[in-house]
Specification:
Two copies of one chain form a homodimer. By secondary structure, chain A is an alpha+beta fold. Chain A has a three-stranded mixed β-sheet with strand order 4-3-5. In chain A, strands 1-2 form a two-stranded antiparallel sheet. Bound molecules: zinc ion (4 copies). The structure holds a DNA duplex.
Chain lengths: 164, 164
DNA sequence: CGGCGCGCGTTATATTATTACATTCCGTCC
DNA sequence: GGACGGAATGTAATAATATAACGCGCGCCG
């Protein structure tokens, strides 16, 4: 029988990843249509490249990846696409890695939290609900008004722990 | 009457900051003595510079600050001192700012969380206890073994909210 | 003394990101 | 259709952050 998804966080090695990509692009189309944003060829391509796998992509690797394609390969090209995708909520920046991952919308509403596996370098996005509440309480006690939460957890995913 | 500390998180503008610095340096001496680490002149100086205020310091600003002092002003000088201080747990790196703040040990044991005010640019370090528990629960559900937690919250501190 | 490890100096380079300005593309209005 | 204006892209240069590689000097220990 097929391997189950590992609790829905890190996808099993055998999962249908093309489906992840198709879904991500379809979702992006939808979002852009709804909000009157333009998913131009560069932007779509960068999104696809980011979704090549579940590992965070570095800006200059993306730049390298579009060599030979009919786009400029100067840094602003990719940084502009990244800015657009970030603004549109289609990707996230992982601050502790200076890298970018596709948003899989598991956080639904509210801030996401990220699990970063140092074994396989994959990142899983989780709803940060419980964590967000705890943050809210701590912030309130300190008289602090929260704008944005950055929660990035490093460790070992289930698969990599089994390997060890 | 003197202004009270704002809930112990962000120090009041009028607080005795020299005391913060003295305490931080004294604590560093203690830690290094206990653990047989060497708080060399450069390392001590960088720590002092970081404690100049409660705002995060950028590596190259520290480098600039030691111009005229009898230290090399090449990047490795300051990065090496930062690495040492990070390893010793005397400072923290704020990933979302590429900057460094003194550890005020409010987190006691366990991972700290940081409140970053976009008004005054100060950073407060809080015990991440409740947040850490919530993270632990979410991670466990996802079959993920936590190594390191990065929790950085942007927003407005009490003082800056009052000004607005 | 001789070797060893650590801290530091020095030079060069890698990596990540932005500024500034020119050009092109596209929808809107006349 | 043609003029306009704003958004998107191209291009060149540079800024900001961080690391690699190598050598020297000094204290420690055998
Ligand atoms: Zn997938
Ligand atoms: Zn893994
Ligand atoms: Zn202070
Ligand atoms: Zn403030």
């Amino acid at each position: 029988m097929p391997e189950p998804m590992q609790n829905g966080a890190f996808p099993a090695p055998s999962h249908d990843h093309d489906r992840c990509v198709r879904q991500a692009v379809a979702h992006a189309e939808q979002v852009c249509a709804d909000r009157d944003l333009r998913l131009t060829p560069i932007r779509r391509r960068v999104l696809e490249l980011i979704w090549t796998n579940h590992q965070p992509s570095k800006a200059y690797d993306l730049l390298e990846a579009i060599r030979g394609e009919p786009f400029s390969t100067a840094p602003p090209t990719v940084y502009r696409a990244l800015d657009f995708l970030l603004d549109a909520g289609l990707i996230h920046r992982i601050e502790s890695l200076n890298a970018y991952v596709g948003c899989d919308a598991r956080h639904v509403a509210g801030s996401p939290m990220f699990l970063i596996c140092r074994g396989c370098d994959r990142v899983a996005e989780l709803p940060g609900t419980g964590v967000g509440k705890a943050i809210g309480r701590a912030a309130k006690r300190a008289g602090f008004a929260v704008d944005q939460e950055t929660v990035e957890i490093s460790g070992l995913c289930g698969g990599c722990a089994d390997d060890a």
